[in-house]
Specification:
Elements lengths: L3 E3 L2 E3 L1 H5 L10 E5 L3 E8 L7 E2 L3 E4 L7 H10 L2 E7 L6 H11 L5 H14 L1 E8 H13 L3 E6 L5
Antiparallel strand pairs: 1-2, 3-4, 4-5, 4-6, 7-8, 7-9
Helix pairs in contact: 3-4
Pfam families: ClpS
Protein name: Adaptor protein ClpS core domain-containing protein
InterPro entries: ClpS, ClpS_core, Ribosomal_bL12_C/ClpS-like
Length: about 160
């Protein structure tokens, strides 16, 4: 008769599938943590001994969106432009520093180009992103003393 190894105790398939009359617990291990419940039933079929079935993971926080859903909804939102307006109060170096601090991934070269465009044309596009991010960037630019606004990327000039 074949045996299955469960932990360090050898069990026969008969003991695994048909518990003894006094057993109250099924032959199944369970682990829990804060977010998931995993049950791993033990099967003892075949020559290789005991085989663990694929774990079943159940969410304990229903109704919460996953990170994938949040990223997908952001990508599908209509784009907005964050606009930098020229002012006569801030030095050019300061404008470059604020752009690099507020906008993720902003390089020195891009910040200088945006600052120059705003200085010469009165207005420059800083970044195009979803509305929520555009509002946040605009608020941060204003909080650092720069004049900025947002507008839909599809409309306007």
């Amino acid at each position: 008769m074949e045996t299955a190894i469960c932990g360090r105790v050898a069990l026969s398939p008969h003991q695994i599938f048909q518990p003894k009359p006094g057993d109250k617990k099924p032959r199944q291990k369970q682990w829990t943590n804060r977010n998931a419940l995993m049950a791993m039933p033990i099967a003892g079929v075949g020559k290789g001994g005991g085989v663990l079935d694929k774990p079943v993971i159940e969410k304990t926080t229903p109704g919460r969106e996953s990170e994938f859903d949040l990223r997908k909804s952001r990508k599908m939102s209509p784009p907005y432009r964050v606009m930098l307006h020229n002012d006569n109060y801030n030095k050019r170096e300061y404008v470059v520093q604020v752009l690099m601090k507020v906008i993720p991934g902003m390089t020195v070269d891009n910040a200088v180009n945006i600052m120059q465009e705003a200085h010469h044309n009165g207005l420059a596009v800083v970044i195009i992103c979803v509305q929520a991010d555009a509002e946040e960037h605009c608020t941060q630019l204003r909080g650092n003393g720069l004049l900025s606004s947002i507008e839909p990327a599809s409309g306007g000039c």
